[in-house]
Amino acid sequence: MPLPGSERVNTEKSGSILGFNGLRGLSVVLVYLNHKCGLQFYSGSVGVWIFFILSGFLIIGELNRQRGKAETAASRPAAEIVTFWVKRATRIFPAYYALLAILFLTRSYFQHAGPDLGFRYHVVYLSNYWIGSVIGGTAGPFGVLWTLSVEQQFYVIAPFLFILLPLERHFVTCMSVVALGLIGHFLMYSSGFNHTPVGRSKSPGYGHLKLPHLMIAVSAAEQQ
User: Fold this and answer.
1) 219 φ, ψ (degrees, to nearest 5)
2) Do the beta carbons of residue 56 and residue 217 sit within 8 Å?
């Protein structure tokens, strides 16, 4: 039988934060209520933003620590990048591609969504591009895959920014990309893009959704 309080100690040592599980659960409920129950007041968007905030906090904190290992000669930057990608792939790929396989085998049940279900985009994590630029925003039952695409695209880019750059440049890098994302977001809206392509497919919208939260993560990591 574990001693009282040992769960908390083990959690702290592993670096996990139990409260985040509650936030993830809240996010799922908000998105579900928005999609299935018609709840408005930005409930779906808030749920997705919470996921992005948590991901930004956790992933950039991890990359920050990996850069620290590289700077102390405990590892090489290239090795840390590969380690990061392998960890992300083993965590996400099995469940994601199993889901895609099931959806593909049962695709006849989703023909009401149109003849093109976008599997060629989903398999390479371009669902956000498919929704925003190919079909123009009507995603049918596959619309939820766009957030995973944004995450995976972020995982490709982020290691180069945060493992290859010195630790002291991380915060400035976040600020710069946030500024570019906000400018791009404004320019796209002023050019007549609707909210779906801006938020889901184009890089300025992606930066607007994702990168502001990275400043929080870098600041927290630097204070540890």
Assistant:
1) -60, -40
2) yes
213's tokens: 């939260």
- Band (pLDDT 50/70/90 cuts) for residue 13 is very low
- CA–CA gap between residue 85 and residue 19 (Å, rounded): 26
Q: Are the C-beta atoms of 180 and 207 separated by less than 8 Å?
A: yes
H or E stretch covering 87: helix 77-105
Encoded tokens for 178:
């946030």
What tens digit of pLDDT does each residue of 127-179 get?
888 887 787 766 667 777 888 888 898 899 889 989 999 988 888 888 887 78
Residue type, 187: L
CA distances to 53, 134, 152, 172, 217 from 212, in Å: 9, 27, 17, 12, 10
Residue 61 is classified by DSSP as: H
The tens digit of pLDDT for each residue in 56-99 reads 788 888 898 999 999 988 889 999 999 999 999 999 999 999 99
Q: In 198-224, which positions are buried (b, 16+ CB within 10 angstroms) versus exposed (e)?
A: bbbbbebbbbbbbbbbbbebbeebeee
* Angle value at C-alpha 68, between 63 and 71, nearest 5 degrees: 130
pTM: 0.74
Rounded to an integer, what distance in angstroms lies between the CA atom of residue 32 and that of residue 25? 11
CA distance 137 to 158: 27
Q: Decide if 184 contacts 203 (C-beta within 8 A).
A: yes
